[in-house]
Amino acid sequence: MSFKLSLGVAFLGLSVLAGCTSAAEESTATEQDLILPFPVEVEGAWRGKWETATSSQWFEGAVFRHDGTFFADVSTGIVCITTPCPTSVRIDGTYHVVGHSLVLASNGPVETIGGDYFTRYELTRSGDALTIEGDGFSNTLELQNSYCAEPVDCEGQGLIHPMCVGGWTCSEQRSCGYSCGIPARD
Q: What is the pLDDT of residue 38?
């Protein structure tokens, strides 16, 4: 009787392992992800440090929201002598982190300018610094309380503001503020 029970348990164990093996083969995890399975925390507002960029394309700033969406202002690497000149472009979409990898995906059609940012990056975080590395690309971003290019960017960042009639503002330093008062009409 114990032989049959042992054989049944062994068969069940092999079935479970076989199921795990096939699921693991379908995963896109890198060897680094498997060694360090705890994801790097990226949620929040980040401001790029241009002096750390290893190419002319870099993240000027990004906000990774709790719901898995993001927006980022990125340098196109284009240098112009006339206007208009798309030296910076806004990208947005969804993101997910697996271990030490960040994958950015677009919500819709990808524009020619800025489209090459929708890819997989390797992440390293040290305190309030996040280094993003890709194919021939590296850029360090610093954690901020908020990040914006225009006031509407401040919504959805979970920022605390006074309970008054008013609206968000965006400073020259690209940080959010809240101003009480009835906004002037144009």
A: 63
Per the document, the length of the chain is 186
User: What's the rounded mean pLDDT across residues 115-142?
Assistant: 88
If phi > 0 it is left, if psi is from -120 to 50 it is alpha, else beta; for residue 97 that is beta
> Measured between alpha carbons, how far is 101 from 140 in angstroms, rounded to an integer?
15
Instruction: Collect all residues with Cβ–Cβ distance below 8 Å to 98 and sequence separation of at least 6.
Output: 28, 29, 33, 39
What SS3 state is found at 98? strand
Q: What percent of the chain has pLDDT over 90?
A: 28
For the four alpha carbons of 129, 151, 95 and 53, in that order, the dihedral sign comes to: negative
pLDDT at 64 over 90: yes
What is the pLDDT averaged over residues 105-124? Answer: 79
Burial class (CB within 10 angstroms; exposed 0-12, middle 13-18, buried 19+) of 159: middle
Contact of 176 with 146, CB cutoff 8 Å:
yes
d(CA 153, CA 69): 13
